[in-house]
């Protein structure tokens, strides 16, 4: 998304460049009265940008005030600043420290021309999206591994009960899902919700009671 006010302040040829560059990189351009100059949605992550195409030493307060304000609105905000000359670069550095900006909050990206600046904006947005997707994949993988490990532990505990085999343990895992679930289930409930025989259900209930008794005894011993 592009800010309509920002668009109206740019030369039409630059807007055409942006439109063509986005289309070539499989992005769709929409115009909205948004608070940032650009907002990209990549990999489910919103990345906002302020794009200062003309550095004006007499208007620096507006730039830094806006950056601070938008940083509070967006979790991912970057400020791209076009600094084509050494004088403008020096002016930017002096102003950056004058207005006590915190490094990386937000991140400022100096460039030497506006085309390069926009290309960097797209690269940053894409990189943020890729990182987010990798983070999501890693989280899902970790959750899957944790789930598998939990199931393996459940099966191991259940099959340690005399008379309960691997099939019984899997049936219990599908219905109760945890040791805590078994602790709350009655013999009748186990028979109704699984293919366990009444005898095996009774074995599990007895095991549960024995475990609770052992736990209570251990707690009493620890208090004496």
From TrEMBL:
<dbReference type="GO" id="GO:0000712">
    <property type="term" value="P:resolution of meiotic recombination intermediates"/>
</dbReference>
<dbReference type="InterPro" id="IPR010994">
    <property type="entry name" value="RuvA_2-like"/>
</dbReference>
<dbReference type="InterPro" id="IPR039172">
    <property type="entry name" value="PTD"/>
</dbReference>
<protein>
    <submittedName>
        <fullName>TMV resistance protein N-like</fullName>
    </submittedName>
</protein>
């Amino acid at each position: 998304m592009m800010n309509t006010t920002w668009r109206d302040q740019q030369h039409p040829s630059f807007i055409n460049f942006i439109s063509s560059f986005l289309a070539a990189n499989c992005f769709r351009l929409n115009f909205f009265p948004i608070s940032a100059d650009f907002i990209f949605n990549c990999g489910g992550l919103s990345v906002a940008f302020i794009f200062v195409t003309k550095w004006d030493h007499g208007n620096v307060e507006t730039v830094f005030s806006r950056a601070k304000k938008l940083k509070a609105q967006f979790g991912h905000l970057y400020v791209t600043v076009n600094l084509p000359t050494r004088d403008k670069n020096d002016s930017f550095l002096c102003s950056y420290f004058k207005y006590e900006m915190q490094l990386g909050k937000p991140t400022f990206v100096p460039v030497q021309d506006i085309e390069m600046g926009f290309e960097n904006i797209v690269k940053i947005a894409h990189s943020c999206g890729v990182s987010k997707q990798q983070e999501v994949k890693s989280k899902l993988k970790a959750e899957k591994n944790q789930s598998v490990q939990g199931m393996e532990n459940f099966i191991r505990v259940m099959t340690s009960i005399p008379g309960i085999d691997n099939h019984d343990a899997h049936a219990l895992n599908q219905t109760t899902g945890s040791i805590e679930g078994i602790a709350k289930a009655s013999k009748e409930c186990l028979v109704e919700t699984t293919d366990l025989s009444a005898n095996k259900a009774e074995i599990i209930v007895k095991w549960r009671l024995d475990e609770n008794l052992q736990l209570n005894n251990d707690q009493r011993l620890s208090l004496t």
